[in-house]
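Dig into what follows:

_____
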Amino acid sequence: MKRIIFAQWVTLGLHLAAMLFGLIGLLFVLPNAAFIESLSDLGLQIFALGMQGGGASYMILGTIATCLFGWHTLGAKTTALFFFPAVLLSLGCELLGTSTGFPFGAYSYLSGLGYKIADLVPFTIPLSWFYMGFVSLLLAHTTLRQGTHWLQRLEAIALGAMMLTSWDFVLDPAMSQTPFPFWEWHQFGAFFGMPLQNFAGWMGTGVLFMTVSTVLWGKAQPPLLNQKQLLFPLLMYSGNFVFSMLLSCGGGIYPPIALGILLGIAPAVGLWFMAPRGDASPADAVLDTRPLVKV
C-alpha cells in the first residue's frame, strides 16, 4: 500500500513537472528564436524531444497517477468502472465531433498530443477526460453528505460535469487560440472564436460518462472522502487548471479565466473544505476514511 501511495504522489509530481516544462517551452523558449539558435546540437535534440512528446507525456502521467490514487483509495474495480466508460464514451464523442462537428462544433486536432486514433483524435485526449472527470466527480460527491437519493446523485453528476466543463473555459483558448495551437476550429464562435456549442458538448459528454459510471457502480458507490483523501483530486484539478490559465494569459486571453475560477476552482476548493477533516465517526459508514482495499 505504501509503495502505491508513494508512486501515486511521485507520478503526480512528474505530471505537474511535465506541464511546467511545457509552459516554459511554449511561453518563453519557442517565442525566443535567439535562445533556440544558441542551443548546442544536444540541447536542440533534448528540447525538440521534450516539446514533441511533452503533450502526450503529461496526460499519460496524469492517467497513471489517477489510476494509482483510485486503486488504493477506492479499489481497482471502482476505478475501472469509471475509467472505461470515460475513455470509450469520450473517444466516441471526440471521433464524432472531429468527423461531423457534433457535439462540440467543427474542429480538428493538430500535432503534438500523440498518435491519432483513426487519424482524427490523439489517444491521449480520452485519457485527460478520464482523470479530470474522475477527480471532478469525486470532489462533487462531497455534496452527498446531505443524502444519497438518486436525485442528489444526479446533482453531484451535474456539478462534476460543470467543473469539468469549467476547466475547458481556460483550456480551449489556451490550446487553440494562442501562437502554438494543438487544435483548430473550422467555424467561428462567440467565445473567443469558439462556438458556444463546444461547452454544451463538454457538459453533455461529462454527464454521459459520469452517469454511466454511477449506474455501473450500482449499490457499491464510492464512499465519501475526507480532506486528506481529496487532496489528490484537488491538486490534480487545480494543477491542470493553472497550466491552462497560464497558457491563456500568455496568449492575452483573460476573461475565460475569471469564468473558470468562478465555476471551477471556487467550487473545487469549496467542496474540499466541506469534506470532513479526519476519520469518520463509527456511526457514519458512508464517510469511512480507512483504506478501502488491501494491497
Observations:
- The longest strand covers residues 107-109.
- Residues 29 and 36 are 7 Å apart (CA to CA).
- DSSP finds nine helices and four strands in the chain.
